[in-house]
Amino acid sequence: QVQLVESGGGLVQTGGSLRLSCAASGRIFGVKDMAWYRQAPGKEREWAAGINTGGEPKYADSVKGRFTISRDNAKNTVYLQMKSLQPDDTGVYYCTAAICTTWTGQYCPDFWGQGTQVTVSS
Questions:
Q1: Residue-level pLDDT at 105
Q2: 14 φ, ψ to 5°?
Q3: What's the rounded mean pLDDT across residues 79-106?
Q4: Alpha-carbon distances of 26 from 17, 29, 92, rounded to whole Å
Q5: What does residue 105 show for φ and ψ, rounded to 5 degrees?
């Protein structure tokens, strides 16, 4: 059984930084694209950043220049370094990854973590 476990959330003041981690574990035969989503109170979940197997990152306009996504393929882990945090960044942050669960690599469904709370105080 595959699991994604996030860590690193917390309470930070405006302008502060946090680093989120998300580690995949279980019967894994490969990890494809990985991404971070976030959900602010009362709003829909939105995509924040993604990274492909080659390490190429992409960002939502709202976080570009402040957030950095990276991955460690040996550890099946994705990170989100967040700087210059603002109150609008408050929310639950979820990681997701397409993880291959068969040795053929033909079945790679999306898995989601349970989320980690980020709160930015003004």
A1: 81
A2: -55, 135
A3: 96
A4: 30, 9, 24
A5: 75, 15
Strand-pair category, 116-121 with 10-13? parallel
In 3D, which of 91, 105, 87, 109 has the Cα closest to residue 4? 109
SS3 of 85-99: CCHHHCEEEEEEEEE
Mode of pairing for the β-strands spanning 67-72 and 77-82: antiparallel
- Strand order in 77-82's β-sheet? 3-7, 18-25, 77-82, 67-72
d(CA 104, CA 5): 25
Q: Is 87 in a helix, a strand, or coil?
A: helix
Minimum mean pLDDT range among 50-54, 92-96, 101-105: 101-105
Residue length, the chain?
A: 122
Buried b vs exposed e over 60-76: b needs ≥16 C-beta within 10 Å? eeebeeebbbebeeeeb
Q: pLDDT tens digits for 17-68?
A: 999 999 999 999 999 999 999 999 999 999 999 999 999 999 999 999 999 9
